[in-house]
Amino acid sequence: MANHDDEIRLCCLLWAQPGQEAGLTAYEDKVLALVPEHGGTVLQRAASDGADGRPHEVQLYRFAGQRELDGYLADPRRTALTDERDRVVARTELFPVDLL
Question: What pTM did the predictor assign?
Answer without folding.
Answer: 0.91
